[in-house]
């Protein structure tokens, strides 16, 4: 028995040694190395006698099969056979190319302008402009911060202005970075390349970087960092809950340090920007809360505050004191009265504040130039009209986003209530209070009634109304027509964005869309000439002058192909300009495979055919505009000064996650397209199509 048992064990070991190994190879590949016959198998390194193995296999085949318990590690799928040639072979080359950059690819004389000779203040302004944004919790901001550090290491002339731009608002993306910034400021002055503490003027930190401790570090003390920033003017501690979709997420709580405001006073700092968040304030009683805010706002550090952001003040924990009768003056402090003591306040923002009720806006300080009300559920038109009657003449910018009870009924009184208004932005998209519910519906019956005609201030330069919903085609027509009628009195208008959802039959909607988009574009859009093609570089200019001297500059069709190519400024786009990419709300797929060869051939032929058959984009757009029915309507005045005219009319219902056509399209054309004779001339014959 022992001998037979050992024999069966040795047989099993022999069978396991010659068992086919699994291979993992791509199903489709363009490499010729994988074009091997299917009978190639792996040969074991050790020689094994085949006769006992065959007998054992036949003997095992006669035995009754036992039901084996299947486990997760046991795969039931057939495993593909591996190739002997693939052992030790280097990995396949990565075919994914890096995203193209915006750069000039035309003829150049390779002469770099003397950037290093510019003054340091101009270089600093260039770096500040080129690196925006740098504080957002996004990959773009992180890449901009990395670009500044690389620019600082380019040369000595760039080091100081690039570092000043970096430390003007130091980016903080992790919990360890505040500790490292504090350690940098604590180093001796003689060991610092520049005096960093004098360069930091703005500090924007996400509350998660303060609420959670870094590895092997204790809780970060914000007061210690603020004490070493004598030039600090802007301080904002942001919370993700104050951004769309405005839903609270469980996280570690963090409160303003008790000695933070005392640190401002001791270091004689003068703030210009401050942000209040109710979730970061430890006071539970509304009376003590507003008394503390009133005391802080009356202190010296807040005397020069120009921008104030207030987030999350609700009725449950931050109720305003009641007003008896028509007297707006109250003895007990409240949110509005504590804000009113700021003498230099010009920019005021409320986010998710349900305390804005009744006469709250009337108690705000006079002289506000910018007012933003976002996700305030109790805000309605009567409150705005009362505010316009008192303080509307000073308002320059008005932002009203995601307020479910506010419609456009105040537009007929906008010109008289806010005569100096320059910017009006409204977003009519709403969000549910809970993620598993669907109650994101407006609280008004109609966005704009058919008998309400909007009026527009003469100084208006930016108008943006998006996700307009729940209104009739007649009301939308009145709004569009009011803009056309007021075009002569809107000389400063430069941006017009109108996105509307109208629920009418598709034939009527198509005609309505074509008519009004054509009319609005013809009245307001600025028709710019294409840039001169021969001013891309000095060498390009010299080539054009040479062609002009030869008498061939007036007709590009007679130029040789290489010269016509040299006279064309080619700018490679940063990303695809297709409609599906632009209108897609989902993130792009970065793991897409390269296109098939047949697809590349077909796209090349289509591009050649379109280049020879279609006119220039400018001529084509003009022809399309003149073919529209709306262009036949005579206009009294053509403003023609808007750089942006974005008009959208459809019947979609606004949702938190809006899916469009781009979310349901593949990255490449599906399948093999129709074969065309002569398409593969001059190419290799690896494929039959």
Automatic annotation (TrEMBL):
Domain of life, source organism: Eukaryota
Disordered, as annotated region: 1-111, 569-635, 649-689
SUPFAM superfamilies reported in the protein's UniProt record: RNI-like
InterPro entries according to UniProt: LRR_dom_sf (IPR032675)
Composition bias type Polar residues, residue spans: 78-87
UniProt biased composition (Acidic residues): 27-42, 663-689
Biased composition range(s): Low complexity: 603-620
Protein's recorded name: Uncharacterized protein
Protein source organism: Acrodontium crateriforme
């Amino acid at each position: 028995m022992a001998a037979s048992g050992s024999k069966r064990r040795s047989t099993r070991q022999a069978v396991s040694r010659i068992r086919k190994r699994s291979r993992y190879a791509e199903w489709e590949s363009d490499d010729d190395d994988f074009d091997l016959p299917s009978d190639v198998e792996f040969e074991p390194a050790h020689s094994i006698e085949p006769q006992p193995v065959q007998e054992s296999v036949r003997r095992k085949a006669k035995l009754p099969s036992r039901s084996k318990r299947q486990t997760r590690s046991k795969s039931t799928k057939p495993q593909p056979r591996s190739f002997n040639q693939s052992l030790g072979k280097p990995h396949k080359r990565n075919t994914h190319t890096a995203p193209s950059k915006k750069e000039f690819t035309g003829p150049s004389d390779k002469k770099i302008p003397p950037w290093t000779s510019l003054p340091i203040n101009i270089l600093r302004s260039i770096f500040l402009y080129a690196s925006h944004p740098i504080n957002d919790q996004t990959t773009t901001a992180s890449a901009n911060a990395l670009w500044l550090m690389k620019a600082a290491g380019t040369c000595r002339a760039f080091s100081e202005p690039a570092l000043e731009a970096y430390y003007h608002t130091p980016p903080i993306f992790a919990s360890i970075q505040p500790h490292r910034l504090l350690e940098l400021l604590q180093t001796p002055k003689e060991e610092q390349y520049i005096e960093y503490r004098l360069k930091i003027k703005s500090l924007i930190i996400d509350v998660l970087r303060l609420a959670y401790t870094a590895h092997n570090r204790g809780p970060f003390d914000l007061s210690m960092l603020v004490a070493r920033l004598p030039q600090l003017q802007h301080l904002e501690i942001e919370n993700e809950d104050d951004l769309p979709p405005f839903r609270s997420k469980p996280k570690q709580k963090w409160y303003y340090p008790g000695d933070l405001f005392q640190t401002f006073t001791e270091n004689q700092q003068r703030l210009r920007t401050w942000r209040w968040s109710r979730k970061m304030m430890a006071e539970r009683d509304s009376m003590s809360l507003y008394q503390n805010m009133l005391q802080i706002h009356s202190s010296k550090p807040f005397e020069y505050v120009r921008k104030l952001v207030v987030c999350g003040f609700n009725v449950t924990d931050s109720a305003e004191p009641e007003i008896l009768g028509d007297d707006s003056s109250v003895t007990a402090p409240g949110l509005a009265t504590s804000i009113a003591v700021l003498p230099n306040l010009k920019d005021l923002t409320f986010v998710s504040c349900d305390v804005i009720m009744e006469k709250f806006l009337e108690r705000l300080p006079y002289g506000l130039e910018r007012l933003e009300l976002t996700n305030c559920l109790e805000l309605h038109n009567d409150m705005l009209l009362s505010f316009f009657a008192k303080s509307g003449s000073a308002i320059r910018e008005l932002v009203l986003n995601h307020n479910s009870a506010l419609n456009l009924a105040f537009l007929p009184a906008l010109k008289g209530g806010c005569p100096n208004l320059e910017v009006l932005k409204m977003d009519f998209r709403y969000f549910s209070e809970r993620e598993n519910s669907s109650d994101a519906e407006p609280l008004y019956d109609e966005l704009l009634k058919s008998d309400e005609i909007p009026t527009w201030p003469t100084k208006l330069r930016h108008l943006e109304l998006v996700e307009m919903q729940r209104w009739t085609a007649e009301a939308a027509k009145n709004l569009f027509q009011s803009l056309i009628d007021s075009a002569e009195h809107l000389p400063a208008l430069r941006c017009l964005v109108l996105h509307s959802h109208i629920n009418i039959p598709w034939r009527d909607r198509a005609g309505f869309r074509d008519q009004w988009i054509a009319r609005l574009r013809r009245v307001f859009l600025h028709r710019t000439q294409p840039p001169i093609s021969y001013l891309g570089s000095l060498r390009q200019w010299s080539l054009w002058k040479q062609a002009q001297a030869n008498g061939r500059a007036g007709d590009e069709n007679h130029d040789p192909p290489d010269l016509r190519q040299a006279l064309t400024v080619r700018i490679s786009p940063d990303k695809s300009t297709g409609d599906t990419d632009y209108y897609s709300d989902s993130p792009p797929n970065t793991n897409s495979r390269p296109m098939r060869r047949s697809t590349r051939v077909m796209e090349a032929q289509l591009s050649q055919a379109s280049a020879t058959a279609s006119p220039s984009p400018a001529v084509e757009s003009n022809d399309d505009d003149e073919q529209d029915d709306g262009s036949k309507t005579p206009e009294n005045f053509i403003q023609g000064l808007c750089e942006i005219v974005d008009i959208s009319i459809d019947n979609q219902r606004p949702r938190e996650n809006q899916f469009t056509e781009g979310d349901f399209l593949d990255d490449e054309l599906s399948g093999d397209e129709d074969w065309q004779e002569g398409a593969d001339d001059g190419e290799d014959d690896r494929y039959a199509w």
